[in-house]
Design brief:
By secondary structure, this protein is mainly alpha-helical. It folds into 2 domains: 30 residues; 53 residues, no CATH class. The chain is 65% helix and 5% strand. The chain has a two-stranded antiparallel sheet. The mean pLDDT is 89.
Length: 83
Amino acid sequence: MQKNKKYNQFLIAGFFTLLTGFAMLSVLLPDKELSKTERRHYAAMPELSFETVADKSFMSDLETYLLDHFAGREFFRVLKTET
């Protein structure tokens, strides 16, 4: 019973470490401007203002920005394509 509890704690700690690591990498890595493989420009950080928050365009633009600048994005995109 005790061994199973330790294993579960290990899995939980590993999961949160993985999540925190990806979040930190996304913040620390510089933003890229151009995707050579997709032949397009990445989304730019949206401007935060009262108007963009009120018309809800800030959150949708922020979502696009975060999806474009996710750490390891190219690796996961290729993995999806290959599988």
